[in-house]
Every structure is written in structure tokens, then in C-alpha cells.
Specification:
single chain, about 290 residues, alpha/beta, two-stranded antiparallel ribbon, 10 helices
């Protein structure tokens, strides 16, 4: 369990170290922690097996280890982002697909950004917020509440407005996990599982376009932020068909990027399961779950 005091201690140490040294410390901690987190490790390996079913077991375990190291680095970057100035922040991120973002924003209805748990989305969102202003971020509420409030304050320093997920009202979240177990079932990598449809419901109701986006770590430990072509949804008389069509398009895009960068898809809870499971230990993901323009 990530406790509040433990989190603050790690954050305080990592934030003050040079980035490369912080990564080195993170690798050592990861080597000690990964074997102990058997449930999360099995879930990660199971998820990756669904993505790459032909991969032999030894290679799959190596892939899961690389994934875990990238996940650790994403957390280290999360701790360091609030101390970065705009120039340093921009130097770590190369955007692609800005024309897609411009096309989505041109409608003046806000933009619903949907993303899987990949890379360090806080860094991409913070860079975006520095250029375009405050971004609303729907985030998983982690326990204890004191820790969630602290993480929210850290994100607010990046000009990210945090709204906890709720079972009531209109909410947007990362679409590769049905955290609240309230979604609908769709095929993902050939097998049915549950996904939240909130972003699509909001888009159909408000006219705001949906922009699939991805944050990828490169070989130099910098990031590439990719904005895919936006989805402009037009409601028909068949609402269920509208939702299904949009969800299938989004999930197909997710599949393409996850299969290309499986070592950067950081989901440590089982995506495919027969019955909803409430996690015993919550290990939150640093990437922001989604963003909605005002």
C-alpha cells in the first residue's frame, strides 16, 4: 500500500535529484519491489499476453519488466514536473498531430481527450496547459483520501484541474479501464471486456469532438505526444448504435498504439476478467485519465 507519508518521502527525495540519478534510484527500487507485487505483476503479464498471445513466456516476463521500469520512470517524472520551467518542460516533449488538435478546438465546444494509460500523460497535459490554459482532468480517486488530495494539489501546480471520478453525473476517464464497473462490453484485442462510455456520451450530448491521444517515451527518455484525427460525432435516432460505433473506433486506435508500444501500456489491474473485482491494493497510474476543454 502506498501510504501518504511514504509517498511524500519518496516524492521529496526524487524531486530534488537530477533526473538521471532519480532514474537510477528508481531502477534499484523497482528491482526490489517488482518481485514482491505478485498480484500486480500477474495482472500486467496477463494483460500483455492478451495483446501479444504468440509471445513465449520468458519474453513476456521480460516485456513486463521493461513495462514496470517505464512505469517507474513515469512516476519519477510526475514528481519532477512541478519543478520544471516551461522551457525544460517543452524540451522533454515533441508534439505530433497539432493540426488534429487545432481542428478539434476550432468548433469552440471544448475537446474531449481520451487516452490509454501510456507514458507520462501529466507531462503532456502540463505542456498543453502551459500553451492553452487550464485543463480539466478526470482522475481515479486513490486511497487514502489525504494522498488523493495531495496528488491533486501537485497536478494543480501543472495547471490541471482535478475532478474525482464519480458514479453520478457526467464524468470522463481513461478508456482502457472500467474503474467503476459501470461500463459496457466491447471487444478489445479479440475478447470482450468492459469499458466506460462516458466520453462518448458527453460528446454525443454536447457536440464536443473526441481526440484520441498518446504519450510515448522515446529511446532518450523524452516523450512524444501524438494527437490522432478527432472524432466528430453526430447523434442519430439509434443512440446505442452511435455509442457502439464511436467506442469501436476509439478502441481500434488504442489497440494499434498498445500493440506497437506494449512496454508502455501501464495497467496493473486485470482488463479481462469474468467478474468485476475491487482492487485490494490501489496502484494509481500517473498518466492523466482524460482532459476536457472548457
Amino acid at each position: 500500500m502506498i501510504t501518504y507519508l511514504g509517498f511524500r518521502l519518496i516524492e521529496g527525495v526524487i524531486a530534488r535529484l537530477p533526473r538521471r540519478l532519480a532514474y537510477a534510484v528508481g531502477v534499484i527500487v523497482s528491482m526490489l519491489a517488482f518481485p514482491l507485487l505478485s498480484r500486480q505483476r500477474r495482472a500486467l503479464e496477463s494483460n500483455l499476453h492478451h495483446v501479444l498471445p504468440e509471445m513465449p513466456g520468458p519474453q513476456l516476463r521480460k516485456l513486463a519488466w521493461r513495462n514496470w521500469l517505464n512505469y517507474t520512470k513515469a512516476w519519477i517524472d510526475f514528481f519532477k514536473i512541478p519543478r520544471m520551467d516551461r522551457r525544460r518542460l517543452g524540451g522533454l516533449l515533441t508534439p505530433y498531430g497539432l493540426e488534429n488538435l487545432d481542428a478539434a478546438m476550432a468548433r469552440g465546444l471544448g475537446v474531449i481527450v481520451v487516452a490509454p494509460h501510456m507514458g507520462s500523460w501529466e507531462l503532456a497535459a502540463a505542456s498543453w496547459a502551459a500553451s492553452f490554459g487550464e485543463i480539466g482532468v478526470m482522475a481515479e480517486q486513490i486511497e487514502p483520501r489525504r494522498l488523493f488530495d495531495h496528488v491533486s494539489r501537485v497536478r494543480s501546480k501543472m495547471n490541471l484541474r482535478i475532478i474525482p471520478l464519480s458514479r453520478t453525473g457526467a464524468r470522463v476517464l481513461a478508456m482502457d479501464r472500467d474503474i467503476l464497473n459501470t461500463g459496457q462490453r466491447f471487444k478489445f484485442f479479440g475478447r470482450l471486456t468492459s469499458f466506460p462510455t462516458g466520453p462518448v456520451e458527453i460528446a454525443l450530448k454536447t457536440g464536443a469532438p473526441i481526440l484520441p491521444a498518446f504519450c510515448i517515451r522515446d529511446e532518450n527518455d523524452a516523450y512524444i505526444a501524438i494527437g490522432d484525427p478527432p472524432l466528430f460525432l453526430t447523434p442519430s435516432e439509434d443512440h446505442a448504435a452511435d455509442v457502439r460505433s464511436a467506442m469501436e473506433q476509439i478502441l481500434a486506435t488504442f489497440e494499434r498504439y498498445i500493440k506497437r508500444y506494449p512496454d508502455q501500456w501501464h495497467v496493473l489491474e486485470p482488463i479481462w476478467q469474468e467478474k468485476p473485482v475491487v482492487p485490494v491494493v490501489t496502484i494509481p497510474s500517473p498518466p492523466a485519465q482524460a482532459a476536457v476543454g472548457d
